[in-house]
Amino acid sequence: xxxxxxxxxxxxxxxxxxxxxxxxxxxxxxxxxxxxxxxxxxxxxxxxxxxxxxxxxxxxxxxxxxxxxxxxxxxxxxxxxxxxxxxxxxxxxxxxxxxxxxxxxxxxxxxxxxxxxxxxxxxxxxxxxxxxxxxxxxxxxxxxxxxxxxxxxxxxxxxxxxxxxxxxxxxxxxxxxxxxxxxxxxxxxxxxxxxxxxxxxxxxxxxxxxxxxxxxxxxxxxxxxxxxxxxxxxxxxxxxxxxxxxxxxxxxxxxxxxxxxxxxxxxxxxxxxxxxxxxxxxxxxxxxxxxxxxxxxxxxxxxxxxxxxxxxxxxxxxxxxxxxxxxxxxxxxxxxxxxxxxxxxxxxxxxxxxxxxxxxxxxxxxxxxxxxxxxxxxxxxxxxxxxxxxx
Length: 391
Prior knowledge:
It contains 17 helices and twelve strands. By secondary structure, it is of the alpha/beta class. The mean pLDDT is 91.
């Protein structure tokens, strides 16, 4: 299969599977425990049906949205994710080039493989910085100060990862940074030599946000135990409130799944929240993000910007989330598989396909702008879920 033959998420995933060593593919593709939440994130959309209006005279469609003080040309963005240099040698740089072209939003993870400063200096889109809360309060403060100096527009604190999820695929292959592969994992690398050549000939693997704090040689603190040794499971609302005050700008919490937590985010002064279960990679058996979206929007949507991610493979998934009241939709694996398959070119093709799907589906729905989407366009098959989400 070639890139030009990829026309949907499943094609990109298959091309990435063919090109990546097994341990790296499974790191992207895998989730926690039995991966039930991972699967549910996408299947939840199937229980919600779109109800179109016809003869609406939709010649042109405006896909722009306003998110946290910034106008985006598209109602979706590329969520910050870790270790992208492993998936393709272009890593975040390739994604950033594609995002710039499409006029949406992107950012760097604490476990990103390019620096905040590089993205800020080379690109004009609003940069998001996704980071974790560390036991070392001085480190937390220093990271916020560095982000402010680098020109980061939006801070995104991940709150559902105070410890690592039980990702059994990684345990089977021995995936870690530095790599400590099982025999089966080593064989997978041996049969994908092109990945190894690209990886070894395009610069050293780095974690610029953490390289002063994590021993990449596999000493006292490697990435495999970063979550265990450096992140603080005692993090509480008071700690986060102090960070919000210190940042004094657009501050979001990623990983909110309950109404109570959404209300607390407002109380401590957050600008936004992301309804997310980390792609099913943390607590298996939790509700899907889409299952929780409506009640969170109903409770707080007029007081705080509600974003959404989890299991999005199609333009219709984006439209359903927007119709429930999400301000914008984050993509994760949807762009990571294309990145792994073909670098910047893959991401551009994937984002272009998503834009085309949404524009076409908006016309079929009879909507000229994102603002016209509403719950009048939705029906849920299970009545207990449809009481508050249908007209």
